[in-house]
Amino acid sequence: MNEITIPRPNDLDAFWMPFSDNKYFKGTPRLLARAEGMHYFTPEGREVLDGTAGLWCCNAGHGRREITEAIQKQAAILDFAPTFQLGHPIAFEAAARVADLTPDGLDRVFFTNSGSESADTALKIALAYQKAIGQAQRVRLVGRERGYHGVGFGGMSVGGIGPNRKQFGAMLPYVDHLSATHLPDRNAFSKGQPEHGAFLAEEVEKLVALHGDTIAAVMVEPVAGSTGVLVPPVGYLEKLRELCSKYGILLIFDEVITGFGRIGNYFGSERLGVTPDIITMAKGLTNAAVPMGAVAVKNEVHDAIVTGVAGGIEFFHGYTYSGHPLASAAAIAAMEIHVREDLPGRVRAIEPYWEEAAHSLRAAPGVIDIRNHGLIAGIELQSTAGKPGDRAMRIFRRCFDDGLLVRVTGDIVALSPPLIIEKSHVDRIVTTLGDAIHKEAA
C-alpha cells in the first residue's frame, strides 16, 4: 500500500481551489488522504467508495502498482527531456500505443497535458488543416449548447456552459453553437441512446446557410458528461458525420470522458459507430497518475499540414511538457492494464446490471430523469424553488459523509465509477445514493 503520512492541514488559505465553493469548504473541509482500488480514505482512515473514478479519470482503479512502478523507473532514468526539435523514445512508444487503440486511420498523436489543452489543440489543428488545403476562409468553429471542452479560451468558447463563460466577457470570435440534444419531454428515463432527436443534427445545414463555407470544424462530446450525462439520440452522430463530410467541415469528438473504456469500447466513437476526423483525450490516458492529454488525428489531416510546408516548423503549437517522460511511462502502463484486463469488456459485461440499478432510483422523491450509457449514469432532480443546485449539493455532501463519492452538476448527480467495479459496489452506490435522496427530499 502506497501511503504518504502528512499532518492534517491546519491552514487551508493558500490553496485557491478550482470549481469549488472555497468559503464553504474551508469552513467545513472534506479531505481525501489516500486511495486504493475502488476506494478513497480520509485522513482519519474512513473509507469512501469512489463513484466517480476521481473526476472521470481513474478508470483502472486507484493505486495501480504497475503504473506507480513505471513512473518510478522512468524518473530514475530520464526525468525530463524537451520535445521541441528533439525527442526521447518513450514519447514515441506512448504515441504508438495510443494509435493502436484509436479507430483505424487516426494514427497521428499530438501530446498535451490536459483535456483543456487537447480541446484547444484540436481546434488549432482544424484551422491549420483548412488553411493547408486552401480553405483559409474557414475560420468559424461550432460547438454545442451544454457542451464542455475544458477551460482554455478555445474550448470555453466552443463549449456551451453559461457559468463557465459569463464571468470572463469576450470569447473567441467566429463561434456558433448547435442545440443541445437533451429532449426531456420525449426522452425522459431512456436506457442507452434515446430514440428522439436525430433531427437536431440538421442544424449544421442552417449554419452553413448562414455562414457559407467559413466553418472549419464542429466539436461535440459523443456523450456529454460534465453537463449531466447527455446521451446522443439514435442517428444523431451519424447525421452529424454525414453533414460535416458533405460540407467540408472537420468533425471533432471530445473523448476526454468517453475515451479509454468508459462506454464499453476504447473510444466512444467505436461504440457509437461514427468515426470523427479528430479525437481529444486525457483523464483515463494515464489513469490520472500523471497529467497528460492527447489529440489523435486522421492521417490525411496530419499529412496535409506536415507535407504542406517545404521545410521548417509545420505547426506552431506545443507545450513544454508535451510527451513528458513520466506521463508517457504512466500512459503506457495504463494502456497495458486496459488491454490485459479488457476493461472495455468489463464495462459491457456489467452494463446491464448498472443500467437497471441506476433506473431503480426512478421512484425516489424528486427524481425527474435518469440517463445512462456504458458505465455512466445521470440522475436528475427537481430543483428546489429559488435554489438551483442546492438539492444535489446537499446530496453530494451527505453521500460523502455516508462513505460514497458522487459528482454533481446543477441538480444532476453524475456517476462514473472505476471500470473495475463489481456488482457489490453497484449495490452500495445505489443504496447510499437512494438513502441520501430520500433524506434530502425537500
Automatic annotation (TrEMBL):
PROSITE patterns: AA_TRANSFER_CLASS_3. It comes from the Bacteria. Pfam families: Aminotran_3. Its cofactor is pyridoxal 5'-phosphate. GO terms for molecular function: transaminase activity. Belongs to the class-III pyridoxal-phosphate-dependent aminotransferase family. Keywords: Aminotransferase, Pyridoxal phosphate, Transferase. Gene3D superfamilies: Aspartate Aminotransferase, domain 1, Type I PLP-dependent aspartate aminotransferase-like (Major domain). Coiled coil: none annotated. This is Aspartate aminotransferase family protein. The keyword Transferase applies. It comes from Sabulicella glaciei.
